[in-house]
Design a protein that fits this description.
Strand order of the largest sheet: 3-2-1-4-5-6-7
CATH topology: Rossmann fold
Number of domains: 1
Number of strands: 7
Radius of gyration: 18 Å
Oligomer: single chain
Number of helices: 9
Order of helices and strands: EHEHEHEHEHEHHEHH
Length: about 270
């Protein structure tokens, strides 16, 4: 197989870091690794012939253009864009600082859409490419306590599926991976806070970065529109999306269940 080129956002930590480590270790990939955390990026990876490190603000059109242009200049093409970077500011809506609206929507939705648009343009000229966006099960169904993130990831899901249909005739595939809770630095912040706003996030299972790695391989192999992790949880969230009034009856028992599990995990980790 010919060497392929991938851009990975959010490469300094969590899912993005793990995936970048996997691809750099197995070889056969030229990587542009991008993250707003320049220190973390350079601590995790060393630039080399096949690794280009680029600190950038995912919300900036100009910085996206620079990342894409430098990737093309260095490696000649873009085979994959892995849109992984994201932020979470869980809180009940009336408690959200107004500034968080811009932050959460700009990073999780606007930034990802800019990357899709510009990488898609480059891929269209090549006649091939694959964009893999990391969404969330919170984007499949309204999530009390996580309304901003749910709004952003829901928008990303809709845009991903729409673009996949628009671009398939151009040789470009788009896949959305929507996982349940993943054990990353974002989860650590939840555990430290221990507030009821995050309760619904803890009503399912906890995934690992290795679980997301396997989803990436499946996406690259099969090129589906969407992968939900776990699948059964995806069907439940879609049912809730279809009949949202169910949440009036389910919310309180789900919140109690989530808080119980949250406290169990905190105790297991000595918090």
């Amino acid at each position: 197989m010919a060497v392929q080129t991938a851009i990975i956002t959010g490469a300094a930590s969590g899912i993005g870091k793990h995936w970048a480590e996997v691809l750099s270790r197995i070889g056969g990939y030229q990587l542009t690794l991008a993250d707003s955390n320049e220190t973390g990026l350079r601590e995790a990876f060393a630039p080399s012939q096949n690794i280009l490190l680029r600190p950038f603000d995912i919300r900036s059109v100009e910085q996206w253009r620079k990342v894409i242009e430098e990737t093309q200049q260095r490696f000649g093409r873009i085979d994959y864009l892995f849109n992984i970077a994201g932020v979470s500011r869980q809180s009940f809506l009336l408690s959200q600082p107004v500034e968080n609206i811009d932050l959460v929507l700009d990073v999780n939705l606007k930034g990802a859409l800019i990357g899709m648009r510009l990488a898609g343009e480059a891929m269209a000229k090549q006649g091939a490419g694959h964009i893999i966006n990391v969404g969330s099960l919170a984007g499949l169904s309204p999530t009390p306590g996580n309304s901003l993130y749910s709004a952003a990831k829901g928008g990303l899901r809709n845009a991903s599926i729409a673009a996949a249909i628009e671009w398939r005739t151009k040789g470009i595939f788009v896949t959305l991976i929507a996982p349940d809770l993943v054990d990353t630095p974002i989860m650590q912040k939840h555990l430290e806070a221990g507030r009821e706003e995050v309760a619904l996030t803890y009503t399912g299972i906890t995934l690992t970065v290795q679980d997301i790695e396997q989803a990436f391989w499946k996406a690259m192999r099969d090129k589906p529109l969407e992968i939900n992790l776990p699948r059964w949880r995806g069907w439940l969230t879609k049912l809730n999306h279809a009949v949202p009034a169910m949440m009036f009856w389910l919310y309180e028992p789900m919140k109690r269940r989530g808080m119980k599990r949250l406290e169990k995990i905190r105790k297991q980790r000595g918090m």
